[in-house]
Inverse folding.
C-alpha cells in the first residue's frame, strides 16, 4: 500500500495536510490534518463580553462576517434580547451576511476550485480580441502563468471555447467579489471585520441612499450569477458528470439554519429562517435540530482527552490533527451549502425545488446524487442565486430612518448560544458569563465538522470518508484528491481553535 501526502493543500484558506493510502489505484484510508494552532477562546477569557463581537471576527479574514453574526446572536442570547431586535437590525444583518456569502461562493468557485477543471495552457494559443485573454496569452508566452501553475494536472475535458470563457470569468469574478464586499461595508461599515453588527442589532440606520447603493450592486451581481456563474458550473458538470458519483462522504447533512425571517422566537433552533434547521440523510430522512446532541471528541487530535479542560498536547500518541471531531448524536455529519439546500429541499421549499429539479432532470440525476463533488458545487451556485434573489425583497422591507438597535444591560451571570450558517456550513458560538466577564467562549465552526479527524469511536471525518474509495489514475499526480477536498471549501484558520471547557 502506497501513501500520498499533500502538505499543504493549496488554494484553500489555511494549512491542511491530506494523507491517503492507495492500493491497486484506490484510496483505502485517508487522514485530514489541520496543521495550524490558534486559541481565540483563550484570548477571550476574562474580557468584557462585548469584546467577543470584535475579536471572533479575527478568527478569519475570509469569512469574518459569519463570525460577527454568530457572536451577535450569542450575545443577544446571553443578554436576554434575542426576541427584541428591531426588524431593521434583523434585516440588515441578513443583508450583510448575504453579501458576504455571495462574495465567498464566487471566490470558492472561480479562484479556488474551477482551475482544477481548466487547461490553462489553452490561453497560449488564443488569437481573439478579449483583453484579459490576450494579456494571459502574453504571460503564457513568457512562461509566467502564476498563480495558475504549478499544480496537479487533471483530465481536462472542456472545449477550448468553454475553457477560455471560464478563464476570462476568473478575472471578472474578482470585480464581482469586490462589489459584494462593498455591499458588506455599506451597512457594516467596512470589510473585512465589519463594525456595524453588534449585540442588539446594527449600528447603521438605513437611508434611501444606502439602500439604492446596495441594490445597484446587487443587481449587477444577480446578472453575473444568472448569466455567468450558474452556466459555468453547469458547463463543468456536463463535462464531468461522473463526479456526481465521486466524493460522496458521510451521507449525513446538518444545518443550523440561516437568515432570520422573524426575530420574535428566542430559541434559534425554532426560529423561522430562510434556510431551515435540521439534519438530512442520503435517503432524504429529515429530523429537527437538537443542539444537545452536539459533542466534540479529541482522541485523534492534539489535545488532552478525558478531562474537564481541553488543553493542547502536541505529539499525543495516535493524534494527527489540530482539528477536533464534532459529532451529532455520535454520528459524522457534513455541513455547508449542500446541507442547507437539501434541508430546504426535503421540507418542500418551492423556490429551492424550482431551482434544483431542472438541474437534476438535465443530468438524469436523483437528489442522492447531490451528495458528491458536483453536488457541492451546484448547491453553492443555486444557493448564491437564492440568497441574491431574497436580498432584493429584504431591501424593500427596510424602513429608512427607523431604529435598528435595542439597548441592553450586561448580566452578572449568564449563558448564550449563537447559531448561524457561514458560507462553509454550520457555525456555533457559545458563551458563559460570570461577574460580567467572559468565563468561557466556544466556537465550533464548519471546517471543524468537515475536516475533522477520526473520533473516539474511530469513525473517519466527512472529508476522510469522501476520499476513501476514490480511484487514483496516477499516484504522482493525484488531482482527484484535491478536487474532492476543495469541493468542501476548507477554512483551516476557523477550524483549529482550542477550546477550554
Amino acid at each position: 500500500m502506497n501513501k500520498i501526502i499533500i502538505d499543504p493543500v493549496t488554494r484553500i484558506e489555511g494549512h491542511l495536510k491530506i494523507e491517503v493510502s492507495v492500493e491497486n489505484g484506490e484510496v483505502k484510508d485517508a487522514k485530514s490534518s489541520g496543521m495550524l494552532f490558534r486559541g481565540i477562546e483563550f484570548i477571550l477569557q476574562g474580557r468584557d463580553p462585548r469584546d467577543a463581537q470584535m475579536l471572533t471576527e479575527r478568527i478569519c479574514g475570509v469569512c469574518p462576517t459569519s463570525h460577527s453574526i454568530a457572536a451577535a446572536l450569542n450575545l443577544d442570547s446571553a443578554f436576554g434580547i434575542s426576541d427584541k431586535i428591531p426588524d431593521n437590525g434583523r434585516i440588515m444583518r441578513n443583508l450583510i451576511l448575504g453579501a458576504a456569502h455571495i462574495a465567498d461562493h464566487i471566490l470558492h468557485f472561480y479562484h479556488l476550485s474551477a482551475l482544477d477543471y481548466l487547461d490553462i495552457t489553452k490561453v497560449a494559443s488564443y488569437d481573439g480580441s478579449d483583453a484579459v485573454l490576450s494579456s494571459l496569452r502574453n504571460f503564457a508566452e513568457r512562461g509566467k502563468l502564476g498563480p495558475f501553475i504549478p499544480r496537479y494536472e487533471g483530465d481536462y475535458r472542456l472545449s477550448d471555447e468553454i475553457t477560455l470563457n471560464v478563464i476570462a470569468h476568473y478575472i471578472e469574478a474578482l470585480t464581482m467579489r469586490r462589489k459584494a464586499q462593498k455591499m458588506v461595508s455599506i451597512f457594516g461599515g467596512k470589510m473585512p471585520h465589519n463594525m456595524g453588527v453588534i449585540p442588539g442589532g446594527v449600528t447603521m440606520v438605513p437611508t434611501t441612499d444606502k439602500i439604492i447603493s446596495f441594490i445597484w450592486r446587487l443587481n449587477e451581481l444577480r446578472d453575473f450569477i444568472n448569466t455567468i456563474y450558474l452556466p459555468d458550473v453547469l458547463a463543468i458538470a456536463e463535462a464531468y458528470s461522473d463526479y456526481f458519483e465521486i466524493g460522496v462522504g458521510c451521507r449525513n447533512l446538518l444545518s443550523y439554519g440561516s437568515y432570520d425571517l422573524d426575530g420574535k422566537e428566542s430559541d434559534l433552533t425554532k426560529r423561522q429562517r430562510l434556510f431551515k434547521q435540521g439534519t438530512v440523510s442520503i435517503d432524504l430522512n429529515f429530523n429537527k435540530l437538537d443542539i444537545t446532541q452536539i459533542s466534540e471528541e479529541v482522541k485523534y487530535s492534539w489535545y488532552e482527552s478525558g478531562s474537564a479542560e481541553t488543553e493542547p498536547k502536541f505529539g499525543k500518541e495516535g493524534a494527527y490533527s489540530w482539528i477536533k471531531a464534532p459529532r451529532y448524536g455520535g454520528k459524522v455529519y457534513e455541513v455547508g451549502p449542500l446541507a442547507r439546500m437539501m434541508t430546504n429541499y426535503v421540507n418542500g421549499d418551492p423556490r429551492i425545488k424550482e431551482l434544483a429539479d431542472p438541474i437534476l432532470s438535465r443530468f438524469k440525476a436523483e437528489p442522492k446524487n447531490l451528495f458528491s463533488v458536483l453536488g457541492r458545487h451546484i448547491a453553492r451556485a443555486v444557493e448564491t442565486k437564492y440568497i441574491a434573489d431574497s436580498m432584493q425583497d429584504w431591501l424593500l422591507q427596510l424602513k429608512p430612518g427607523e431604529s435598528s438597535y435595542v439597548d441592553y444591560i450586561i448580566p452578572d451571570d449568564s449563558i448564550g448560544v449563537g447559531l448561524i450558517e457561514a458560507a462553509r456550513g454550520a457555525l456555533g458560538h457559545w458563551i458563559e458569563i460570570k461577574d460580567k466577564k467572559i468565563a468561557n467562549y466556544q466556537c465550533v465552526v464548519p471546517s471543524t465538522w468537515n475536516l475533522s479527524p477520526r473520533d473516539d469511536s474511530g469513525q473517519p471525518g466527512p472529508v476522510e470518508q469522501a476520499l476513501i474509495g476514490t480511484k487514483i489514475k496516477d499516484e504522482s499526480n493525484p488531482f482527484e484528491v484535491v478536487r474532492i477536498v476543495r469541493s468542501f471549501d476548507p477554512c483551516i484558520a476557523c477550524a483549529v481553535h482550542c477550546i477550554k471547557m
Q: What stands out?
A: The chain has one domain: 2-119+156-495.
